[in-house]
Amino acid sequence: MKGSDLIRLVDQMHHEKNIDREIIFSGIEAAVQLASEKRFGEESGVVVTIDRDSGEIHAKKGEEAIDPAELGRIAAQSAKQVMIQKIREAECNAVFDEYAAMKGDLVHGPIARQEGGAAIVTLGKTEAILPRSEQIPGEMHHMGERVKAVILDVRKVGHRVKIILSRTHPDFVRRLFEMEIPEIADRTIEIKALAREACYRAKVAVSSIYLKVDCVGACVGVRGQRIKNVVGELGGERIDIVRWNDSLQVMIPNALQPATIKEVFLYPRLGRAIVQVEEDQLSLAIGRRGQNVRLASKLVGWDIEIMTPGELDESITRAEGWFSQIPGIAPEAVETLIVEGFLSYDDLTFMEPAEMGELLSITEDQAAEMIEYAEESSERVEEEERIRKEQEAAEAAANPPEEPAAPAPPSEPTAATLFGDDGAATIEQPEEPTPTVESLFGPEKSATEEEQKISADQVFSAPEEIKKE
Predict the structure, then answer these.
(1) Do 94 and 113 fall into the same domain?
(2) Is 382 contained in some domain?
(3) Is CB count within 10 Å lower at the N or C end of the chain?
(4) 134 domain residue, yes or no
(5) Is the CB of residue 356 less than 8 Å from the CB of residue 347?
């Protein structure tokens, strides 16, 4: 092969497969080196170099030049295999480096085929897999359909690269917002936090760097057109756009919208927030199957518990009774624990002895004994609760609610019921009372004889008047 042909081949592979030219030259050198060693032996000391500018191959055995064309068919075949392997490795590395840098980015392509529940998506000159677990529940894909997804993971499997896509990851919603909303793409509006349960609901907290830009209104768009495009791509998934605030006292009520919050209690030591709501707002704050409070907790990064004022008072009273049973604890220590947000034995088990000793001004040994007692009591309370639930379930199964009795079907009429004993039909009509003067004119006034009389003139006066007209 001429040097110019080799240079042209290397350049073509460099552009088509995105492989560095130096890697290709090194692979060819290694292939020719192996072929020379097979021809002359490994101890022959053959050295092979390729001129990067002219493409000329120089092979020397000591001071003697070797013509690569004289290496023989078997050596050439071995060199070809080595060169193919080197190029495949280089191609695999190039694809891996390219897509590993794109993790979390939005890509799109047509579906080439279906394998089980997974969809194989064509991305340029390579393929990616969209597993069933990463598809939005309920959606169906077909061959040739163009889908959008984010790159979830990139792995090397042998000499191949496995690219995994996702449509359920929260970053998919983030990338769709960047694509549909220019203010997010140019960083005028920033997505501060995002929580999502695919196919059901997502909460997006946004903030604007300019006071004149309404971050929520910009995301919604005119007549909601921008958010409609995002919801349409997500298959109708509900999206709550929340205004971000650095203060948790403001941010937590925003995250729990549309529920109205009465008060928020923060306990930094536990990373917990107890949110107090009125009774009529309890189900709205918790959401269907706890979805609203669960997404709000993910959004703010704190454990949120929803309670009514009565439930909070009951929890505090129960905690006082439990903590007072801890051996060697002082009443002031019980109050301190409750003020810090500890409301159960289980909460105490997450503390270290040094931390509890510092909080309650006791020694670490005393704190360790209290924590050990809390662990034992937590298991006991849990077991009692389990037994209570089993007993309630057993009682409910033994005494199922009575179903209302079905009304008796009407009996078929017989001759006796229709016609009586003598065979004649009788229809009983309710007796109407005979009208009296009092029933007509009331008890306080009775009709006079003048009022009871109807003269002939009064009877025929109307027709006479009609005739006159």
Answers:
(1) no
(2) yes
(3) C
(4) yes
(5) no
80 and 21 part of one domain: yes
Q: What is the largest CA-CA distance in the chain?
A: 158
Backbone φ and ψ of 72, nearest 5°: 100, 165
The token pair at 10 is 């290397």
Give the end of a domain, one of 390, 419, 446. Answer: 390
Residue 21 structural domain: 3-99
Q: CATH number of the domain that 362 lies in?
A: 1.10.150.20
The tens-digit pLDDT sequence of the chain (469 residues) is: 667 788 888 888 888 877 888 888 888 888 887 777 777 776 677 788 888 888 787 878 777 777 766 666 766 677 778 778 878 888 888 899 999 999 999 999 999 999 988 999 999 889 999 999 999 998 888 999 999 999 999 999 887 899 999 999 999 999 999 999 999 999 999 999 999 999 999 999 999 999 889 999 999 999 999 999 999 999 899 999 999 999 999 999 999 999 999 999 999 999 999 999 999 999 999 999 999 999 999 999 999 999 999 999 999 999 999 999 999 999 999 999 999 999 999 999 989 999 999 999 999 999 999 999 999 999 999 998 899 888 888 888 888 766 555 555 555 554 444 444 444 443 344 444 444 444 444 444 444 444 444 444 443 344 444 344 3
Is the residue at 66 inside a domain? yes
Using a 10 angstrom Cβ sphere, with 0-12 exposed, 13-18 middle and 19 or more buried, the burial of residue 351 is: buried
> What is the model's pTM?
0.72
Both tokens assigned to 189: 């509006």
137 & 198 share domain: no
Give the integer Cα–Cα distance in Å for 77 and 85: 13
